[in-house]
Amino acid sequence: MAEEKELLETEVTEAAQEVAETVAEETAQAAQEAVEAAAELEELTAAAFEAADQTEAQTFEEVEAEVEKEKDAVWARYEQMIADKTIFPVKVSQIVKGGAVAFVDDIRAFIPASRIGAGFVENLEEFKDKEIDVCIIEVDREKRRMVLSGREAARKKRDEERAKAVDSVAVGTVLKGVVETIKDYGCFVKLENGLSGLVHVSQVSNHRVKTPADVLKEGDEVTVKVIRVENHKLSLSIRALMEPEEGEEERAPRRPFRERTDRPERQDRGERAPRERGEYRERREREPRDTFQYKEEGNASTGLADLLKGIKLD
User: How many structural domains comprise the chain?
Assistant: First the structure.
C-alpha cells in the first residue's frame, strides 16, 4: 500500500514538472513573440512618424512656395499699374511728417505732401479720412514699400472740369477780368467766372500796337468779348468792344495759321527724271527765238589817228 502511494506521488510530481516545463516553454515563447511584436510595432510606428514628418515638411514647403508665388503676382500687378498709370481710390488713414499714409490691400503706402493734390497743399489735415484718386509711382518688393501720387488724378480732373466750363461759354459773351500776364504776342486775362483766356496783340486796341505792354499792365481791369472757343481755349478781344477810330474800318479777328494738308507734294527738282529734262531741251530748241543780228564790218582800232579820222574842226 505504501509502495503504491509512493509510486502515485512520483507520477504526480513528474506530470507536474512536465506541465510546468511546458507552460514555461510556452510562456517564454509567448514572451519572445510579444517582444518581437513590440519591436515590429515600434519600427512601424517610427516609419509612420517619419512618413508623416516628410509629408508635413513637403506640405509646408508647397504652401510656402504657393504664398511666395502669390506675393510675386501681387507685386508684378503693382509694377504693371505703374506702367499703365492706373488710377484707383484709396482712403487717407493718417497724416505724417512730409505727407500722408494710405493702405493698398495690406501694404502701407506713403503719399508725399507735394503729390497729394493738383498743386501746393497748405493743410494736409484736410485730407484725413478722405478718399482720393491716386496712382502708384514707386514700389519696393524687398522692403514692402509703396509710394503713391494724387497729383496726376487731381490735375486730370481739374483739366476736365475746366475744359467743360470753357466749352460752355458762348461766343459773343462779354465778361470782366484782370490782366494776369503780358507777352509780346498777347496778354492772358483772368475772367470773373474763374476761367482764363488770351487776348491776341491784334485784339488789344483799336489801333496798332507792337506789344500789349504799350497800353496795358498786369493787374489792369478790362472788359473783354469772347470771339472764339476752340480746343478748350478762349480767345478774347478788347478791341471788339471799342469804338473804331475815325477812318478805320472794322477788321475781322485774325485766325491762327493752319498748314494746308490737301496740296500735292511738289517733286524735288533734283529728283526729276532725265527724260523730262531732255524733253524740255528739245522743246526749247524747237521754239523760235528772237536774236540780235550783228555783222562786223571793217577792223576795230583804238589808235588816236583812227579815232580822230573823219572829225572836222572849224
Answer: 3
